[in-house]
């Protein structure tokens, strides 16, 4: 079988290694530059590769093509493959048949990294032999090639789900759905919603779908469409005979007639959205039959995820918070909602079709000044120019942090929560978050 891998990053190189091990004729092609460290791995494994081009004669003879999630369906080479009827799949689809491990698949517009890390933390603390992969950490395919784990927690983006045909997780989670990446879905929200729900399309009666019952898009989809999976809802406002919910400041999860309770104030992660993430992860832990004491301990000592409402430093009684991972309006909504002090908000970047009106009430209530950090800030200025007392445009993170310090008084918070992608001024959201932290440490 000829396997062509488009994209020589983590998922691409991992897929190439697994393909080679399973006896495929493997070729890796990247339109950009492949990092030296990945080139070395390919050479060491005797895998053919090219970069800075796509040679059609070497690609269009594939039996199957694994496309990295970053490559859009509209890319010319992908269109040609589809026209020829060659299956174009994701790493998850390619690797899953080669493992007997149980997979827990987690998707959603926001909260999926925190929920993934928390679920992994719960299962690992319980002594399960569990791997972590998907959008995060080491390539799933490469871990399958090494055959080390009995179960995997996978963070799955809509792009990875677009590339599945037969894959099904034993336990699926949809944390929430809000407009994001619409540029990849012809600007149609319903296409993006359908993409998320691909996570459950192959599930059977023996599988589970854990979902946010407070989420409008999820509830509407479930009313109109069927999944065979057993449904396990979670909610901040409703209660269930089976599911997870909050009642009298206590989180309760009732699953397979077993009840788990924990006071919400004992949960390490703060904010309402994190209670949802905790309910989702606890539901998985209950399904995996983890002891109550272990779940309680894990929820109370979990440290959170870098670049997601990460407390950086307190300087002159001003708290600096790095929420660089907030690349859409909905994520920033959660961040602003959890602020309890006057906030100087650093926002901006590459807009993915944002509607800032959703943030209006929170900005009026919580934000004293806005610092726009982006190449084009017009939309943000139009939205909030008359709402806050102070609006400043800057061109570097260092400048943003220095200005923020000037605008704060004791007891304030400086929040980096961009609501946008980072590619105009930074390599990625991690680079943006690190630059913020460095600038704060240099104040």
TrEMBL record:
Residues in Mur ligase central domain copies: 106-284
Name this polypeptide is given: UDP-N-acetylmuramoylalanine--D-glutamate ligase
Entry's localization field: Cytoplasm
Stretches assigned to the Mur ligase C-terminal domain: 307-420
Assigned keywords, A-Z: ATP-binding, Cell cycle, Cell division, Cell shape, Cell wall biogenesis/degradation, Cytoplasm, Ligase, Nucleotide-binding, Peptidoglycan synthesis
Protein family per UniProt: Belongs to the MurCDEF family.
Chief location category: cytoplasm
Pfam families on file: Mur_ligase_C (PF02875), Mur_ligase_M (PF08245), MurD_N (PF21377)
Organism lineage: Bacteria, Pseudomonadati, Bacteroidota, Flavobacteriia, Flavobacteriales
Keyword Nucleotide-binding carried by entry: yes
Pathway entry: Cell wall biogenesis; peptidoglycan biosynthesis
Reactions that this protein is recorded to catalyse: UDP-N-acetyl-alpha-D-muramoyl-L-alanine + D-glutamate + ATP = UDP-N-acetyl-alpha-D-muramoyl-L-alanyl-D-glutamate + ADP + phosphate + H(+)
Source domain of life: Bacteria
Recorded GO MF terms: UDP-N-acetylmuramoylalanine-D-glutamate ligase activity
Species whose genome carries this gene: Flavobacterium magnesitis
